[in-house]
């Protein structure tokens, strides 16, 4: 009996243990839905669909790019938030377990435009939740275009409609308008009004009538354009058609003169090499803009218009629209922000006159005018012989005897005064090379003469004879004190292209001797030489400014600053050039007395060599430099031009 009771007890204990073990076995937990939600957000962000548990990744890949349309290339960020279900969601025990995922889209539309924000949702479903299949439980979702936008369908496409902002004006001194919208004719072939067989002959005839440089290229552009296109051959300023007979052009087969306005200067040549041009963006400009410029945008293509294009063009108005056969949905957008005006220091009337004065000069040429008190560039004209180069600001030429102002400063610093005697001989020899004065040098100023007379009459030999008393470093320091070779701020771009000049610091022998009369290895631009005259007039080193910006870069001060006393001595020497020296003709210029220095620099291999003709001058608060690349003597070629410019500045006529 006791044995039987033991069996019964053992069975009872075993049964109880079994019941206990079964009751204590935990049910498998559902997997965390957050990794699946994050994977979905990542795939929507990068467009790869290689991680999210989607039912149709290939369809998702294709439809995502198609729906995003114009926004597909913009950077985007997608974040996921899992929404936990309520404690009692009302579902039956057999209903699949689901989670809602909120997807927050943020698409970066570029600088100055608010990001496009959109919220969509996805449903995660737990597959095989009972764990009775071969695969473990996992969260999956079904692809739908509504993951991109709540109202999107498979046929939806996002388009970005852009309207360019009004471009900023380029203004001159005291806000005078320079580059503003002006009326033009766009001349081209209107293909829609021609049969296909007439496209080529019409294009050939128009290209010939306009004397285009690349006539074949224009014909090919016409043929390659769409059937309803209007390929423009030339844009003509209204009221300034020049040699183009607009009435005859209108009568040509297929030719259309379309009226329009584009940003233009007051004349077709006005500071063109400096201000640059405006036109449709090239492929290179579009590629470099990082989405800020698209094909068809009007942008600055060269010069200041290109340098300051980001400010001038402003921010376009945008409309972001979800287009669909059922109707369009406006997703967002922004208003246009007008371009900012660019202020320059150019005096419109003086610039126009300077260009007119150079119109008949066949070689490269320039007129530069600076206001000494401020350094403002009032005119920077390059003649037609410059062939589009800004000779005025970036030309590199030997300055000839105009550089003697810098040499005189070096000699003054070495101890000479305007009355110090110097030897002006017919010739002087340095290291076997013979130097002489210009032909026609006045014999009355040969011999022992004061330094002031050597400068007034431009005696080469008197200055070269002093080459042993000053080093090339002394000359370079003196030139820098007058702005030649002025150092620009390191790590910053100057506000406009400018060649300030170069003066060697280690020249010896004949090179050093030639440098003293502005030949040798000395180079300067007309703007730099106008700066010399301006520095003398202002009594300090003048660095020219052309663009008025909020925070202009600060020029590096010269190693040896120009003093007031030195400037007064140089003023006296330059006044002497006009009173008793080689430029007495400038006495007839109305207004304040004129101080000046002429210059002639030989160049080339011809026999006799060709010569650059130079002249610099100051009068009151105006400094001017004139260069003619191929001329006679400075006084003969550049002299009459500088006299006319000074007279116009003084009288307006």
From TrEMBL:
Enzyme Commission number(s): 3.5.2.6
Chain segments annotated as transmembrane: none
Species the sequence originates in: Serinibacter arcticus
Penicillin-binding protein transpeptidase domain mapped to chain residues: 366-646
Gene3D superfamilies hit by this protein: DD-peptidase/beta-lactamase superfamily (3.40.710.10), Penicillin-binding protein 2a (Domain 2) (3.90.1310.10)
UniProt protein name: Beta-lactamase
Assigned protein family: Belongs to the transpeptidase family. Belongs to the class-D beta-lactamase family.
Location of the Penicillin-binding protein dimerisation domain: 163-330
Cellular compartments per GO CC: plasma membrane
GO molecular function (one): beta-lactamase activity
Keywords (A to Z) from UniProt: Antibiotic resistance, Cell cycle, Cell division, Hydrolase, Membrane, Signal
A Pfam family the protein falls into: Transpeptidase
Subcellular location: Membrane
Catalysed conversion reaction: a beta-lactam + H2O = a substituted beta-amino acid
Biological processes annotated in GO: antibiotic catabolic process; cell division; cell wall organization; response to antibiotic
């Amino acid at each position: 009996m006791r044995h039987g009771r033991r069996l019964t007890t053992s069975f009872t204990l075993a049964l109880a243990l079994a019941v206990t073990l079964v009751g204590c076995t935990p049910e498998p937990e559902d997997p965390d839905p957050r990794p699946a939600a994050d994977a979905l957000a990542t795939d929507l962000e990068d467009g790869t669909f290689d991680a999210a548990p989607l039912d149709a990744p290939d369809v998702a890949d294709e439809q995502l790019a198609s729906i995003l349309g114009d926004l597909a290339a913009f950077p985007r960020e997608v974040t996921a938030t899992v929404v936990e279900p309520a404690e009692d969601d009302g579902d039956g025990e057999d209903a699949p377990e689901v989670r809602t995922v909120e997807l927050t889209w943020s698409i970066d539309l570029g600088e100055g435009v608010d990001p496009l924000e959109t919220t969509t949702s996805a449903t995660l479903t737990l597959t095989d939740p009972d764990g009775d299949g071969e695969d473990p439980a996992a969260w999956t979702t079904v692809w739908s275009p509504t993951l991109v936008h709540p109202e999107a369908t498979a046929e939806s496409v996002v388009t970005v409609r852009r309207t360019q902002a009004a471009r900023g004006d380029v203004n001159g001194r005291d806000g005078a308008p320079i580059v503003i919208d002006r009326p033009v004719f766009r001349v081209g072939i209107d293909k829609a009004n021609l049969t296909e067989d007439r496209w080529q002959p019409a294009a050939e005839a128009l290209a010939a009538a306009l004397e285009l440089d690349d006539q074949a290229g224009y014909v090919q552009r016409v043929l390659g354009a769409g059937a309803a296109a209007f390929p423009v051959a030339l844009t003509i300023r209204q009221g300034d058609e020049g040699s183009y007979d607009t009435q005859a052009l209108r009568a040509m087969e297929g030719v259309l003169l379309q009226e329009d306005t584009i940003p233009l200067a007051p004349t077709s040549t006005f500071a063109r090499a400096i201000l640059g041009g405006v036109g449709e963006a090239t492929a290179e400009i579009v590629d470099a803009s990082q989405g800020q410029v698209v094909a068809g945008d009007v942008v600055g293509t060269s010069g200041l218009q290109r340098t300051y294009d980001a400010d001038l063009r402003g921010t376009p108005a945008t409309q972001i629209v979800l287009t669909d056969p059922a109707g369009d949905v406006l997703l967002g957008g922004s208003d246009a922000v007008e371009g900012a005006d660019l202020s320059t220091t150019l005096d419109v009337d003086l610039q126009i006159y300077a260009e007119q004065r150079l119109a008949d000069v066949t070689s490269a040429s320039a007129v530069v005018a600076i206001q000494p008190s401020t350094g403002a560039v009032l005119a920077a004209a390059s003649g037609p012989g410059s062939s589009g180069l800004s000779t005025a600001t970036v030309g590199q030429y030997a300055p000839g005897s105009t550089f003697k102002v810098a040499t005189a400063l070096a000699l003054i610093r070495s101890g000479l005064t305007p009355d110090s005697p110097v030897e002006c001989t017919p010739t002087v020899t340095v290291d076997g090379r013979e130097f002489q004065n210009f032909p026609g040098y006045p014999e009355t100023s040969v011999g022992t003469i004061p330094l002031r007379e050597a400068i007034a009459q431009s005696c080469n030999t008197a200055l070269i004879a002093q080459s042993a008393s000053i080093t090339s470093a002394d000359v370079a320091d003196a030139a820098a004190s007058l702005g030649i070779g002025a150092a620009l701020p390191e790590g910053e771009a100057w506000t406009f292209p400018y060649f300030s000049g170069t003066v060697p610091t280690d020249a010896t022998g004949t090179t050093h001797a030639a440098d003293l009369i502005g030949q040798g290895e000395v180079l300067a631009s007309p703007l730099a030489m106008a700066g010399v005259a301006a520095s003398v007039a202002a009594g300090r080193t003048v660095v020219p400014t052309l663009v008025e910006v909020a925070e202009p870069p600060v020029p590096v001060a010269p190693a040896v600053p120009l003093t007031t006393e030195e400037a007064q001595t140089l003023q006296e020497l330059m006044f002497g050039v006009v009173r008793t020296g080689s430029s007495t003709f400038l006495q007839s210029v109305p207004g304040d007395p004129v101080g000046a220095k002429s210059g002639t620099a030989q160049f080339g291999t011809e026999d006799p060599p060709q010569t650059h003709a130079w002249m610099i001058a100051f009068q009151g608060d105006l400094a001017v430099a004139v260069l003619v690349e191929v001329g006679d003597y400075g006084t003969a070629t550049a002299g009459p031009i500088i006299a006319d410019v000074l007279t116009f500045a003084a009288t307006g006529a």
